[in-house]
Write a structure and sequence with these properties.
This protein is an alpha/beta fold. It has a domain of 212 residues: Rossmann fold (3-Layer(aba) Sandwich). 50% of the residues lie in helices and 7% in strands. A 6-stranded mixed β-sheet has the order 3-2-1-4-6-5, sandwiched between helices.
């Protein structure tokens, strides 16, 4: 794909933007190479359209799982701020939005508060709560407001064989530009760069000036440091975990090894060694049945959540690592909610024990103080 084909992509984007339906666009922006390539093209197209014809609104949607490596999180927020500022100065109808999981869905609330075992490929409870729900809440709010939306994604056939199959499934005709979203009613997917090769994406990013004033060489450096790929905006459960070869959650235990974090450590982010050690410890802890309750949270027989004393150890280790790294890894609000959950769990134990033996109440009260201590 040469310069002429890049122009064809831009022409196609412009043609659809100026079409009469005027449904808003929601661009998934993770800050990685593919979503940056897509957003740059859209941004530049809009900047070259006369102001009176810029009638379609564009939302730039990013996701913060609260678990991105600190350097990736800072880069994303800095870039989003640049996009918002530049769009405003150019009078472009672009609005940025960074969505986050609700407090009750936050990773450490589930892991440390409720005692969920660290995710694995069979029990990958994190993706829906941290990524899909926050993004879909935003998209659904815009569907409710406008009736329908067009979701622009930086998906490409060359990303992987699975991605190529997915694109082929949704775009049965290569001439087709839109496909219905698999789970969101009245949302349609548009993937303008689906036929671009990886080297073409990088060539474009390094040769075309970033229209909001960013520096793509910084993006290149992060990819080199992590030996990584892009972890895209996730709006369904078909996206693979990102810890294996992509920027993703620093605490991801779905994969056997987090090569992205290993890459950052090798590249000189020495403090990230603490994050990697914590992640590896959680990976081992998950499969140790001695660390788990003998009943599930609903009272059914079977391997249950982490025991209360184990959850306390996880929190204490996390707080210690937070000091060593010098970055906030868990908020005071999350810690407060975790304490409430622990108290509730202990009271449940108290009620069960008191039915059997009144003398057990003093032991359980002691356990409440122990479990909620810092």
């Amino acid at each position: 794909m040469g310069l002429n084909n890049l122009k064809k992509i831009a022409v196609n984007i412009k043609r659809h933007y100026l079409s009469p339906d005027e449904r808003p666009w929601v661009i998934g922006f993770s800050g990685g190479k593919d979503s940056t390539c897509l957003l740059q093209m859209v941004f530049q197209v809009l900047a070259n359209i006369p102001p009176r014809k810029r009638k379609r609104f564009v939302y730039v949607l990013s996701s913060d799982t609260l678990l991105e490596p600190p350097n990736i999180s800072k880069y994303l927020y800095k870039t989003v701020a640049q996009i918002e500022k530049s769009a405003h100065s150019l009078n472009l109808p672009i609005q940025t939005e960074v969505v986050k999981p609700t407090l009750n869905d936050a990773f450490f609330i589930r892991l440390i508060g409720y005692g969920y075992p660290a995710p694995n490929k069979w029990f990958r409870w994190c993706t829906d709560r941290l990524k899909i729900r926050p993004a879909n809440r935003f998209i659904k709010s815009k569907i409710s407001l406008h009736g329908s939306v067009i979701l622009l994604l930086g998906s490409r056939k060359a990303e992987s064989s699975e991605r190529a199959k997915s694109i082929k499934k949704h775009y049965k005709d290569d001439a087709e530009d839109f496909s219905p979203h698999t789970s969101l009613a009245n949302a349609y997917v548009f993937s303008p760069i689906k036929d671009m090769e990886t080297d073409e994406v990088w060539t474009y990013l390094l040769q075309a000036p970033c229209p909001w004033g960013g520096d793509n060489s910084e993006l290149v450096a992060m990819y080199k440091d992590a030996n990584s790929g892009e972890c895209p905006l996730v709006v369904d459960d078909s996206t693979p975990p990102c810890g294996n070869s992509r920027f993703g959650c620093w605490v991801c235990t779905v994969v056997e090894r987090d090569r992205s974090m290993e890459g950052f450590v090798e590249a000189g982010y020495e403090n990230y060694e603490y994050l990697l050690e914590f992640r590896n410890w959680l990976h081992e802890l998950r499969d140790n049945e001695q660390m788990r309750e003998k009943k599930k949270r609903n009272g059914a027989d079977g391997l249950g959540p982490f025991r209360l004393e184990v959850r306390r150890e996880i929190l204490n280790r996390l707080l210690n690592i937070q000091k060593l790294v010098g970055e906030e890894l868990i908020s005071n609000r999350e810690i407060g909610e975790i304490k409430k959950i622990w108290i509730s769990d202990n009271l449940s134990i108290l009620r069960r024990v008191s039915l059997k033996n009144d003398s057990g109440m003093e032991k359980t009260r002691d356990n409440i103080t122990f479990s909620c201590g810092m």
